[in-house]
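Just wondering, does anyone understand what follows?

——
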Amino acid sequence: MSNVIKEPRTVVRKFLARPQREGVGATVRRSIGRFELKYFDPFLVLDEFSVSGPAGFPDHPHRGFETVTYMLQGAVTHEDFEGHKGTIEAGDLQWMTAGRGIVHSEMPAGQGTQKGLQLWINLSSKHKMIEPRYQEITSKDVSEAAKDGIKVRIIAGEALGIKSPVYTRTPTMYLDFTLNPGSHMQQPIPVSWNAFVYILEGEGIFGNPRSSPITAHHLLLLDGSGDGLEAWNKSSKSLRFILVGGEPLGEPVVQFGPFVMNSQEEIDQTVEDYENCTNGFEKARHWKSESTSVFGY
């Protein structure tokens, strides 16, 4: 990837992600997957979540896509019906490929408020029924780079010459940028990919140096014709945002809650599989997470 951007992408749509209830008593700011933006190929959902016990996300299934959990504050405990469990702490990453089926829980691991991001990435039809897998990286092992007042944590893809070890079955870049006051960044994006920015802290100018600053909790959709992003922090405080891009799949999407397939027939079969604990959901029949039991669900 060349670091020279010839045609910066511009912001074509902007959404403020407003708080809503999700799970059991949890609060999320949903920017992708809401009524104005049901799908941004290949991205199904982006939630900025905030949860304090006993609220959380008790036992629930997934099929047909990947979930990427990136913790910003506190920690959540994860547990699935295969016996895989652990705690995702601040700065940690869990890249979960649900594939043919996972049933799991995600619950707060400590006192106070736990905050993070969860991104759902669609899988192509040929990968929807693969075996589930995890890629888990602790904060200290997340790739980082810094230059000229810019720090970037490379969740997936490449920035400033540093690559992430994460394998993305649907080709994806996921970068966590922090810009000091007065700094300016450029980041290449493959021309054919869809890409967006989500602002976590501060305010920044994106795409055009003459445009107005945009504040936290806004999702910015970038146009599809340019080869990268330019951003400026002209404020007196630091600016933090994620830049996410992905190669569009260009396939039909039929979604029923936590199940995402290519046709209604496949969704009907998925519901039947889940209800009957078959075809990937066998272990759901007698399983209940420890955290769900602790919190009394």
About this structure: The longest strand covers residues 43-51. The two ends are 48 Å apart (CA to CA). The chain has a mean pLDDT of 95.
